[in-house]
# Entry
Amino acid sequence: MNQPGAGYSGYFDAAAGLPPHPVAAEAMQAAWQDGWADPSRLTGAGRRSAVLLDAARQAAATELGVRPDELSFLPSGVHALQQAVLGSLAGRRRAGTVLLHSAVEHSAVFGAADWHRQHGGEVLVAGVDPAGRVDLDEFVELARRPGVATAVLQAANHEVGTRQPVAEAARQLAGIGVPLVVDAGHELVYGQAPAGVPIFTADARLWGGPAGVGLLVTRQGSRWRPPFPVDEAESGRATGTPNVPAIVAAVASLRATRADRAAEGRRLAGLIEQIRQQVPRTVADTVVLGPDDPAGRLPHLVTFSCLYLDGEALLTEFDRRGFAVSSGSSCTADTLTPSHVLVAMGALTSGNVRISLHPGVGQTDVERFLAVLPEAVAIVRAQAPGSSPGVLPGVLPGDLAAGAVGSLGAGQADAPSGTLPRGQRSAPDGLAGSVLDSRGRRCPLPVLDLARALPGVDIGSELTVLADDPAAASDLAAWCRMRGQQLVDQTVLDSGGTAYRVRRLR
Amino acid sequence: MNQPGAGYSGYFDAAAGLPPHPVAAEAMQAAWQDGWADPSRLTGAGRRSAVLLDAARQAAATELGVRPDELSFLPSGVHALQQAVLGSLAGRRRAGTVLLHSAVEHSAVFGAADWHRQHGGEVLVAGVDPAGRVDLDEFVELARRPGVATAVLQAANHEVGTRQPVAEAARQLAGIGVPLVVDAGHELVYGQAPAGVPIFTADARLWGGPAGVGLLVTRQGSRWRPPFPVDEAESGRATGTPNVPAIVAAVASLRATRADRAAEGRRLAGLIEQIRQQVPRTVADTVVLGPDDPAGRLPHLVTFSCLYLDGEALLTEFDRRGFAVSSGSSCTADTLTPSHVLVAMGALTSGNVRISLHPGVGQTDVERFLAVLPEAVAIVRAQAPGSSPGVLPGVLPGDLAAGAVGSLGAGQADAPSGTLPRGQRSAPDGLAGSVLDSRGRRCPLPVLDLARALPGVDIGSELTVLADDPAAASDLAAWCRMRGQQLVDQTVLDSGGTAYRVRRLR
# Structure
């Protein structure tokens, strides 16, 4: 097993962390005997540890184009990112207490922003276009607001692969004196280290390093200060004894991965392009997300969403067939909320699938996946609770013909429970007209309810869908766009949930 | 190498972290292939990781006598301890913002306390007796003060081995509604897990686990809340993907170490007792620190201090002879301040040596150490800058006879520079009488200056030593106690440093 990722040909979830790179495993084992001691101790064991740590720091700094004293090792990519953001705010307290970040950052940035807000700070969020790209003009405009102390922008998005204009953002922000913190993570694997950026971070798990290593770069002149208690470790920039064997392994795999990055990036980009082309052709009611232009996205990652699909059931179906993928659907998360990235893009969150490849995945693996995808989707669509008994594997729900509003699914235990009987005039909260109550029903059911009910409404007339699933806002809007129908407006109800007014156009 | 610590027979610095336990190395290697993935992912790799993590958590919880859901894994013992303290304060904000801890806690507690103070909190510190044991009555009395939200007490001290009355403290504090946070670290290796304590922590490096694993136990009913941003890891109690292979290795070595703890504890206690007996007999001007009663201290750790010794030079001398020890002397630390533990005890900090043993150290290793100790001390004492040229290896500086005040060392570049010439009346800041200016001179020189100069003063008369080394306060007082002389008082000088008034009694 000398090929990275060998034995993981069905693992399409590289962006959640790679299996250990062979050189990481070797380096870890070698460093285990000589790197276990605290490198700050004045003992032989401590000195041997310090030699390994210094060498690893020097090698990683060279790879990243920074000075060794600008690079610290933290216990994870999330630690590094949170400390980058909050440490930049701490160092810039005189400038103000406002944090700016894009709407599609890693959840660690949102966690840091929540913490900052709870401790008296303010947070501004810059939106993105439907491809997930931040509006640079808006971003810079927000950064000019009084009191903005730090801005955060990822190099590339971890869910849809969209590259952000970090170099240009850093240049413009430098002009107005606001430091940019960049989450370099996924871009660093096959792309460039951020240049001209005062602070950036990375997570070693993304290139086959072990858990337990995050990289934090604070360039000379940046006003970063430790936001949390520190001790003497890592020149006062980290806490606890450095995990030297893991650091050595992380750096070895970084260099090995990046040595091959141009060729491997091209190879993976080809496989991803194949997926992007083929998925919409073989699976109905599916949208591929992210920029069409290959230069505008990561080479190894693609995301698509499928209507009328329970994301968790789809993951289970793929898993059964030997493929590991990820999903930003609400039904696969503990929180029951859909991915904030997909919501910010206004994308369909239902049946969301993220595929992220790695050196252990070959052409035949992608072809195997593409071959099983249509059937897997059909099976899961057929299993959706409340789906029409007439929908069978192979029959695409795009052809669903549903009954009229008010009688739809009546008598079925898992059908919309509050559908108003025909003729009833007093809708909840004074809503008039046809009303479909999908409250209490989770993704993908509200969209499925709408898809079945709308054909029962006259063309030009309206149907109001009541829903309290957090995914409904994104998904009903996305459905209307995909189907050429009109989402007229939406109103939060006093009685709970939101009313979505949909006009049937065709 | 199946014996833990084999190959490290001269490594007497176990309290700074042990070489990897053989079962840790095995477990790490086994878990490396199956535990690399994020255990929260809904993929096959994620599930295999989760199975390993669950099993490790269950095993560790059983070993510690707690429930699995009360135990979290953090990236280091320092992380765990800081989060234990600040998380208890966060969870008890309604009760107040006062933190109480003993004066001899781990530096992580002082780091957390500084942070708490900078963020608007208050901190109370309870003193210790000369053996390093907290005064329980004072501790509980301070805990009764209004606004005390959390109290912190270590199970046993990491520098001198003194056991603290944690069980009794927890009982009394429970009675007044103040939760106790216990740093269980060193006690956990050969002793008991804390019982009846709401929150406690440990560091896997102390029992031969890998770096990167700290344990945090928050018992049911404790009001702990995450003090820093968290994500979903470890049920919201930690940040970043859990380092599963390291956790598995940490737990395997915890169980293996504790399986043998009674016999191993007895064996090491015998070796430590031998060191405690022999050091004062073979090395003049030396004090052994910590409680005399073996039940009152850790079995595997002993600390002593030697007059007229540069701690760093002594460590280097031991290192040259194949022994790794630790020191709380100021000259071995980056900060130039002596160990806060030794200062709180009022102990001599000069020439401080901490020895902490482990399973790989045998009787013959301790005998080798005891055989080289007197010569090593004599060599380093002879090398001290400004020491009398007449002092040679084997000649103990306790016999030093120095010249008269005012002429002592005159003309020597590294002798006290500001010694007042005889007859000069106007001493700095209006000090009268014989004055020895040791300002600008570092440990162990101020004590050496006093030892040389005092014989030049008449019995019953006084000599004032000016010193600005932070170690001087502890060390001049300790010297006077050891020599039967009287430290009359001490005064901070406007011109910098402190004036110590010493009366010659004999």
About this structure: Chain A has three domains: 14-259, 262-383, 401-503.
